[in-house]
Amino acid sequence: MRYLLLVAHGEFAPGLHTALNMLEGERDDVFDIPFHDGMTQDDFKAQIQTVIAPITAGDEVLVLADLMGGSPLTGLMEALDAHCG
User: Fold this and answer.
1) What is the mean pLDDT, run by run of 10 residues, along the chain of 85 residues?
2) Residue 10 φ/ψ region, left for φ over 0, alpha for ψ in the -120 to 50 degree band, beta for the rest
3) 33 alpha-carbon distance from chain centroid
């Protein structure tokens, strides 16, 4: 399966996900992972684990992020590497 993961600071990822839903309808292969102001790294990592749970090593994943090298993107990539190898 193919997945699209939207990860960003604040409301950017959920906002983009909402716009995609308006254009394409609800999809079960698109997820947003927001890193909210005041959120701890542990809370963010737990959120990531919940989102990536259905992803397997055989799946294709496209990640869109707001900032190269930012903590949301690096946290997601570390979690995907550990989860899927």
Assistant:
1) 97 97 96 96 96 96 96 96 90
2) left
3) 4
Other beta carbons within 10 angstroms of residue 28's beta carbon come to: 8
pLDDT of residue 85: 76
C-alpha closest to that of 7 among 78, 67, 82, 57: 67
Quick one: pLDDT at residue 26?
95
Residue 72 structure tokens = 């949301």
Rounded distance between C-alpha atoms, residue 77 and residue 56, angstroms: 14
The upper half-sphere exposure of residue 24, i.e. CA atoms within 13 Å in the direction of its Cβ, equals 11
Three-state secondary-structure class, residue 2 = strand
Q: What integer pLDDT is reported at residue 49 of this predicted model? A: 97
Enter the tokens of residue 18: 């909402």
